[in-house]
Structure formats: structure tokens, C-alpha cells
Amino acid sequence: MKPRMPTAWISTAQAACAPTSRDLSAAREAPPALLAGLLSMQCAAPALAAEDCKGTVYLTFDTGNMSVAKLTADVLKKYDVKATSFLANEKTTRGDYALDKSWTCFWKARAAEGHAFGSHTFDHVYFRGNLEGGKIKMRPEFGAQAGQNLEWGAGQFCAELLRVNERFRLLTGQGLDPIWRAPSGKTSPRTLKFVESCGKMHVGWATPAGFLGDELPSGAYPNEMLLKKALESIKDGDITMAHLGIWSRKDP
After folding, report:
1. N or C: which end of the chain has fewer CB within 10 A?
2. What does the pLDDT average to over 96-114?
3. What is this structure's pTM?
């Protein structure tokens, strides 16, 4: 079930109006990224009657490898759109990690622009299943315990979410919003109970329209195809999900 989206936590964009062939043609000439095409359609408000563009779309991003982080930021700024990023300390194409001090200027600028930020777990930790004794099995993708199956209780789970908040405060001077997105969106009633005990809520995405498809192979799912599908299927109130860079993606 999709959570309610408090407007103070998740920033919004105008909902996309029904695209025309001219719109889609213009999108193909936009910067070579799915996001650029999507936002150009969602945010071209001056060319559309106000009554034709109603509703709200919630734009969210997970860190990923950060290869298109600057492009994403530039497009959002161009169209004056606020979005929400869920942050993890993932390895980037620069060879560092997304929450290293080397990314201070980037995150400071995004915070100053008024975007919202949530936790994606510091080490991009996947939920692997429930365990006896009220614990959960988790597997970090990064960090000192990468690839290991760990047994966590609520305290360890909350501590992992807090690590992101502490690092983001160190980098930007501000904390995160009280929201979390599970890597791959995988949760259970127990993890949702844990996150409530941390004072946060889980935010997924609309299924299937909100999954923008940047994790799919570029050969079979080129940007043009993903953009067309998004424009045709995203509805008022949908939460979208993409990444600030995917290792397997050839189209940016």
C-alpha cells in the first residue's frame, strides 16, 4: 500500500499532461537522459493551459553510482522542480563513495536548493528475511561487512539509518527528513515496525508506473521507450523512482 506523502517531506512536480507526437519529438532532442525527457514533459507549464496540468507527481531518486547526479541536479534546477533523494554510501564512477567528503559541495548545493532527503541505509543494506526472536536478516552491499548476512534487532536497524543522517549533517549542516527507502524496496511487517520505532516511515514507489526502468538493459529498453511508457502511465499522486546512476545502464 502506498504511504501518504506529507508535502513537507516529499517535494513535488506538476503532473504530466497527455503527450502529443510533437511533445515526444521534443523529448528526443532533450539532453540524453530519461530524466531530462520526463521533466521536460512534466514541467513545460508555460506551453500548456493551467487547467490541462492538474495533480502531483512525486519525483524520487536513489543514489546509485552518481554518474548522472550532476545532470539530474541541472535538469531539476532548470525546471525549478524539487525532488527527494534517498541516500546510501554507494561506490561512484569517480572511485569514491556517494557520502564521502568529496561530495560535500554537491550535497550542500542540493540542500540549499530545497530538496528533501531520506535514508537508504548507509551501506545499502538489503533485507533478506525475518528470523526467530524478532530479528531480521540483512546483507550490506558496501562497507566492512559487505556480502555478509547479519542478524539485526530494532536497535541495530535504527543505528544503520542514523548513520546516513549523521553523515549528511556533517556534509551539509542539516539532517534528513524522517523517511527511509529500503534497497530494492524489499520490506516486511517487521522492518516497517522497526522503522516506526526509529521515528521514520518507509516510502516506496507506484507500481508499476513509478519504476522508471533505469535498472533495465539499455539495448532492450532504450531511454526513448522508457520515456514513452512513463508519460503514458504515470498518474496523479504517483511516486516515481530512478537512480543518480546505474552501473549496467549504457544510455545515461
Report:
1. N
2. 97
3. 0.83
Q: Which residues have a Cβ under 8 Å from the Cβ of 140 and sit 6 or more positions away?
A: 121, 123, 124, 125, 126, 146, 147, 148, 150
Helix (H) or strand (E) holding 140: strand 136-140
Between CA 211 and CA 215 the distance in angstroms is 9
Comparing C-alpha atoms, which of 162, 171, 174 is closest to residue 199?
162
Show Cβ contacts of residue 9 under 8 Å, excluding neighbours closer than 6 positions: 84, 116, 118, 177, 178, 179
3-state secondary structure of 59: strand
> For residue range 183-234, what is the model confidence (pLDDT) as tens digits?
999 999 999 999 999 999 999 999 888 899 888 888 898 988 998 998 899 9
pLDDT of 110 over the 80 cut? yes
Residue ranges and CATH numbers for the domains of the chain are: 12-44+54-243 (3.20.20.370)
Among residues 189, 183, 181, 191, the alpha carbon closest in space to that of 136 is found at 191
DSSP type of residue 53: S
Statement: residue 5 has pLDDT above 50: no
Would you put residue 26 in left (φ > 0), alpha (ψ -120 to 50) or beta?
alpha
Using the 8-state DSSP alphabet, how is residue 118 labeled? E
Q: In what order do the strands lie in the sheet with 125-130?
A: 125-130, 136-140, 150-152
The C-alpha cell 502511465 sits at 233
Residue 53 has pLDDT above 70, yes or no: no
